[in-house]
Design goal:
By secondary structure, this protein is of the alpha+beta class. The chain has one domain. It has one helix and five strands, in the order αβββββ. The model has no long low-confidence stretch (mean pLDDT 86).
């Protein structure tokens, strides 16, 4: 059990450090759309700050996806400015 707790703590730290880096980026990142929370074995209600398992992707809201189909075989991501063909 201690090993699993340590693994989860390390994983949460890695995710949090990524969020800190992402917050300072000069460009936008599209939100993943993740809305569910999980503990070590199953889906749980989203945890609140200070509670175990808080800090999962679903706890953070980012730029909502937005796309434009140009009708010519290309699609633009209105958040990042990228275009796909």
């Amino acid at each position: 059990m201690k090993t699993m707790t340590r693994c989860l703590a390390v994983g949460a730290s890695v995710l949090m450090s990524g969020l800190v880096v992402a917050a300072g980026l000069p460009y936008a990142i599209v939100d993943t759309g993740q809305v569910r929370g999980y503990d070590a074995t199953r889906e749980i209600a989203l945890p609140h700050p200070g509670k175990p398992f808080f800090g999962q992707d679903a706890n953070y809201k980012g730029n909502q996806p937005s796309y434009r189909d140009h009708g010519d075989g290309t699609v633009s991501d209105l958040v990042t400015g990228l275009m796909w063909q």
